[in-house]
Request: fold
Amino acid sequence: MPRSFAAILRLCRRLTRGRGLIFLTGVAMTLAMVVLYALRPGWLQFQELKLYDVTMRRELTSVQSGLPVIVDLDEKSLTTYGQWPWPRFRIALLLARIKAAGALAVGFDIVFAEPDRTSPETMRRMFREELKLNVSFDGLPNALGDYDSVLAGVLHDAPCILGYYLEFEAKPSPDFPAPQPCALPGLRLSTLASPGSRPLPDWLPQATGAVCPLPRLLSNASGAGFFNTIPDPDNIVRRSPMILAQGGTVLPSLSLATTMLALGVKSAVARVGEGGVESLTLPLPGGEKRTIPLDGQGRVLVNYRGPGGTFARVSAADVLTGAVAPDALSGKIVFVGASAAGLRDLRATPLD
Reply:
């Protein structure tokens, strides 16, 4: 037997005694952990996500900035003003009231993808084409003939971000109209990339299409942002995409675009490393900076403040009737969304 082989055998015998056995056990366990980390089996991911939920509940903080307010299309609103969708002149009136109350910015968690069919001009055309009747509306000002034009006029003078929905599959979702080509405003940003890293859009999920606002509304708004959510494999939303891509264009989320508008931020700075997108920095007008840490795909890990209903809500009906307290919307970032049964878009979170 060669001396070298005999020496190896003697070493193995020593290692299997006492501390040597502990050492080999540690090596085996380390190798097993490395293999599990590399393979990432489904059961391990599930346990990791549930452990995160437990930590989130344990470390929950209710500290809020006081800036976000939700103007809610709730049951009271639908009971008072009728079923959804509302005529666009009422949306225009709602937006005008929010602006007059002193809101910093308004984000619509709604997509106005189709023309308003309740507009007098649209109804006149439908009567003429389908019923062969010539109908006139006596006493109606010309400015109110097209409700979409009314809303476009209010959007032109209001700090407002419109919402849209990005499609990532070739087959359109049954919940939304088929995506149409549209010129969505991209996020103004500069990129700080490490040597050898890929371009920023290459790291982001690529949209195949979008359900966009009407062009005349989009052209008069201050901007637009997507309201897509991308849940984890167990269908719970723990991360929220801040930026997504369509072709070579980087698009902002509704929350990001509305916040930038409210804070007067004109552009952002993205840091890209070898593992993807690392952060997004917002330079504030006063010289301060706010950095949002992102995962490699442009998502932020949401620091939830509580379950549904944690943030202040104001009924859209109260805004329209003027029953809202004077300071309820002043200096706030307002998101217009729906909680009424049949309208709300429910998502599961670690807390709710």
Notes: The mean pLDDT is 85. The two ends are 69 Å apart (CA to CA). The chain has eleven helices and 15 strands. Residues 120 and 179 are 27 Å apart (CA to CA).
